[in-house]
Specification:
Length: 516
């Protein structure tokens, strides 16, 4: 069913304090699946393309109105200075609008899971039946707290009675008021003028409009939602969590139907704004938030939270926390990686274990595999950053950039003090603190030279197991039979290298033998 006409107005009620939330944050601003309750409600209202979209604000009105401006700048906030009930709220909204003709839709700001299609069906039913009012209802397992739909023997809606005002017999009714209505504009305005506040809360109830119109002999209809979860409201944090779960299940179900593998839907959380492609796999304990997108063949998780992250096809992201980052096709991230904003990992690149990156352009095939901080840096294609390298980007006052060229090699435990340029095809020796730029093809070595002091253990640690081990090794090397004491010390400085040279600063990756 498609509504033939667009409503004259949608009025979203959002002035209440939400006392039961027990929160500093206004209820409307609490988040569900990455959007505020208000954004959910306004989004559903906007989908009807009304002439006017009004949001009644009251409690924390500046904060709520500012949020509304961000969410839907075309929506009009109307202030209900005192919260004198839902009927009074709608009256206040109508007073802020020019006289309306046609249909007015009223929704509750705290009912976030309503599907636009259901709202359209409510509108269509209302218009087809030429009703003065039509209420969206549902049969629910536990109607506690909701207004009950009171029908006559013929099944026609007689009115709505609030839980607190209901008789025991009425409390047994399982059909509840969702708080969503379609009204004929003129009939609504007339009935609102006749509301009283003769009820347990001393408020003007919008729900009383239905009894007034029915008593006048007007047609009052109901549209029963098939899915009761659509009309559940958030009044406290228990319901917030329950509805969060419902929304998440809905989102995951849609993605699974669209070809995404969700290994454990119970521990996987995907916000409505996320985009996934077929053949994405989400492992347990994965949260995808905001504008995150994951391309086909990529695997995310376990234990991964990505916010506004773009994951390329066939990439793998394991036990990672990422925000505003881009991960290229076939790239590998984690386990235990922290991708901060501005991280951009190229195709087939790697950000490995215990690596933190920020404002980091890491080229295709480049690798930062272990225990590294990369801040404010560009790393060229195919370059390898050794374990424990730190890009020292902060001098205590300013942040500076470091540029490492293509196919270069930074040895383990290096500190690159920014601003720094390391050329294409350059080497940095392990353990270097690099404070001067390194040209293409150069090797930078910046560390203390090694001295091996022969016989030190025998002199200073005689009688220890270490000394025994050293003696045994020396005997074995010299082919001498075992003697109680090892060879005497050979002096303070290291003997010449086996090849006859002293340490020339030559660096290669083959482990050097300790030579005596
Ligand atoms: C309301 C309905 C109840 C329905 C339920 C559905 C009434 C009297 N009761 O109850 O029948 O089953 O919603 O969730 O309508 N608000 C204002 N101004 C006010 C009072 C409320 O804008 O003066 C707003 C609130 O911010 C909220 C909405 O109206 O978004 C509903 O108010 P709330 O107090 O939550 O009503 P419920 O007790 O849930
Ligand atoms: Ca409510």
């Amino acid at each position: 069913m498609i509504a033939s006409v667009k409503p004259a107005a949608v009025i979203v009620l959002a002035a209440g304090e939400g006392k039961r939330m027990k929160s500093r944050t206004p209820k409307m601003l609490h988040q569900l699946g990455g959007r505020s309750l208000l954004a959910h409600a306004v989004g559903a209202g906007r989908s009807l393309e009304p002439e006017h979209l009004v949001v009644v604000v009251g409690h924390a009105r500046e904060q709520v109105a500012a949020h509304l401006e961000a969410v839907d700048p075309g929506a009009q906030p109307v202030v209900q200075a005192e919260q004198r009930g839902t009927g009074h709220a709608v009256r206040t909204a109508l007073q802020a609008l020019p006289p309306l003709r046609g249909t007015v839709v009223v929704t509750n700001g705290d009912v976030p899971l309503l599907r636009p299609g259901t709202l359209r069906a409510l509108l269509a039913t209302h218009e087809e039946q030429g009703a003065a009012a039509t209420v969206l209802t549902a049969q629910v397992a536990d109607p506690t707290g909701y207004g009950r739909i009171v029908r006559g023997p013929d099944g026609a809606v007689r009115g709505i009675v609030e839980h607190r005002d209901a008789t025991p017999a009425q409390q047994a009714i399982a059909e509840i008021n969702s708080g969503m209505f379609a009204f004929d504009a003129a009939r609504l305005a007339d009935a609102l003028g006749r509301l009283d506040s003769d009820n347990s809360q001393g408020e003007e109830y919008l729900t009383d409009v239905l009894a007034i119109l029915a008593a006048d002999g007007h047609r009052v209809g109901a549209f029963v939602a098939e899915d009761e979860t659509e009309i559940l409201g958030v009044n406290d944090r228990v319901q917030l969590a329950q509805l969060g779960r419902v929304l998440n299940d809905r989102i995951l179900t849609e993605w699974m139907r669209a070809g995404v593998t969700v290994v454990d839907p119970a521990t996987t959380w995907v916000e409505a704004t996320v985009r996934l492609e077929p053949d994405v796999t989400l492992h347990p304990q994965t949260q995808l938030r905001g504008a995150t997108s994951v391309a086909s063949g990529a695997e995310v998780g376990p234990d991964t939270t990505l916010t506004d992250v773009t994951v390329g096809p066939d990439a793998a992201v394991v036990r990672t926390h990422g925000e505003r980052a881009v991960i290229g096709a076939g790239a590998n991230v984690g386990p235990y990686a922290y991708l901060r904003p501005g991280t951009n990992l190229g195709e087939s690149g790697k950000i490995g274990t215990f690596v933190e990156t920020k404002n980091a352009e890491i080229g295709p095939g480049a690798k930062v595999p272990h225990l590294t901080y990369v801040g404010d840096a560009t790393i060229g294609e195919g370059t390898n950053i050794g374990a424990g390298t730190i890009f020292a980007n902060y001098d205590g006052v300013h942040k500076h950039h470091t540029d490492v060229g293509r196919h270069s090699f930074v040895g383990s435990d290096s500190v690159l003090v920014a601003p720094r340029q390391i050329g294409d095809g350059a080497y940095v020796a392990a353990g270097s603190t690099v404070v001067k730029d390194v040209g293409p093809g150069e090797l930078a070595v910046a560390r203390g030279q090694q001295r091996n002091i022969g016989g030190w253990v025998a002199r200073k640690r005689a009688g220890t197991r270490t000394a025994e081990a050293a003696e045994a090794a020396q005997r074995a090397r010299s082919g001498e039979p075992a003697t109680p004491s090892g060879r005497e010390a050979t002096g303070e400085t290291g003997a010449p290298h086996a090849n006859g040279t002293r340490d020339t600063g030559d660096v290669d990756d083959a482990p050097k033998r300790s030579e005596q």
